[in-house]
Amino acid sequence: MSKLIILENDPHYLPYLHSLAALDKRVLVRPLDGWFWTSYTQIVEEGLLSDIKVEEWDNSLKRPHPPHSQLHFVASAFPPAENGEALFNQIFRAVASRDWLFRYGAVPFSGVIPDSFRKRATAPLTSIQRGKLACMVDATVHVELAAPLKLMEDYAVNFFPPRTRGKGPENMVAVNFKPLGYQMMRVAGVPEWDFVLRALWIHKKTPVGSSLKFMAPGAQNMVKYMDQSKLGLLEKSPRDLSMDEWSILMDAFDKWPFHPRDNALSDSVLTTDKRIR
Question: Are strands 164-165 and 73-75 parallel, antiparallel or unpaired?
């Protein structure tokens, strides 16, 4: 490791971090809020990432991509509730579009997250917990635990600030995310994927063929551009669709000449938002 860049603006923590930096010249502390996109712009402008190589991303690999040789992002604790989930979605979108730190290549990232996030992010097909987030995750990264669940059970007792869910403390988990080589969302377009996923997951219990009409005027006509041998997927609900089947839908959406474009897709959350949270 050539350097460790720490972003932390809490005045209670900073003295300890500055003491650490005094002991090891590889540690660089900046009093910045890690949940602001502009904080990363600042460290880039300061030249702290000037020695980071832009590495080739092999989109033909149908497996986790070899990690970037110099860069690894670590979020010590994702924000809870909606703030954290918004961050989740934006990071996976950035993986697919190769924005933010992923402009340098297949950068692995890790974090301590609420276990409820992990369960939703990794919910399998047919699971009642499966939703848009799980699709975004399946399309962009490979997920694995960084530490056994047992080791993190006392997070609410031993770490600050405590996280709560309902009446009791929520378990936290340490997770690693490894970008996939093949980024299927990049093929049809990230805003397009976001638009279709959002539109169809609103009707998550409805067969896709019946809910297309709610996506956009005339959207039923995109069926004409599907491989006719794959029409059976239209009888499935969103939670039953594999990622290959989502790709078939996206290919038809892309070929449909009247699909929404540009401003019509602007409801998507973009990584140009001022704040992550």
Answer: unpaired
**The residue count for the chain:** 277
β-pair type (164-165, 168-169): antiparallel
Q: What pairing do the DSSP bridges indicate for beta strands 27-30 and 172-179?
A: unpaired
User: Which two three-digit tokens encode residue 123?
Assistant: 């919910």
Q: Mean pLDDT over residues 32-57, rounded?
A: 94
Question: Model-level pTM?
Answer: 0.88
E strand or H helix that includes residue 169: strand 168-169
- Helix, strand or coil, per DSSP, at residue 90: helix
Strand partners, 16: none
What's the pLDDT tens digit per position in 109-125? Answer: 999 888 888 999 999 99
pLDDT value, residue 171: 79
271 near 90, Cβ under 8 Å?
yes
d(CA 147, CA 145): 5
Give the Cα separation of 219 and 255 in Å (integer). 12
Higher-confidence position of 96 and 167: 96
DSSP 103: G
